[in-house]
Amino acid sequence: MSRRRRRGNRGPRGSSVRVTRTKGGKTTSSFTGGLSVTGMGPTGRITSSRPTIRATVIDRGAGLSKRDIKLYLDGSEKSRFHYNEASGQLSHYVGHALSAGTHEVRIEAESESSGDKTRFGGTASKRWTFTVVRR
Q1: Closest C-alpha to 78, from 87, 88, 89, 66
Q2: How far apart are CA 29 and CA 23, in angstroms?
Q3: What domains sit in the chain, N to C, each tagged with a CATH number?
Q4: pLDDT digits 0-9 by tens, 85-133
Q5: Dist. CA 56–CA 90, nearest whole Å
Q6: In terms of C-beta density within 10 A (0-12 exposed, 13-18 middle, 19 or more buried), how is residue 117 classed?
């Protein structure tokens, strides 16, 4: 039996949330927050056996750092990746040649809530595949 997986985000994972604080009938603060993982690559069929994995990981409600992100390639966690906190750009150069076939990438991000009343925690996760083909 073939199962189809829904694409996109499910529930609070990776969704954008509008938060409004009120006190005594007055709005004290309001912002749109939430984690997102977008712009993933490579996807589809590629000829390079040493690709650079890329994604944009952004937290619209709080600062996100490299330690808040986990990157997995074929189930193995990779700690050697670059993350630019200002732009949200993540990249990982695959140093060893990947075998021909399908490979899976998974990115998980989690932001922690803090004592700051305008910062809330959240999680986001994306998984995708690409296929290395020989020329």
Answers
A1: 66
A2: 10
A3: 37-132 (2.60.40.10)
A4: 999 999 999 999 999 999 999 999 998 755 454 555 688 999 999 999 9
A5: 6
A6: exposed
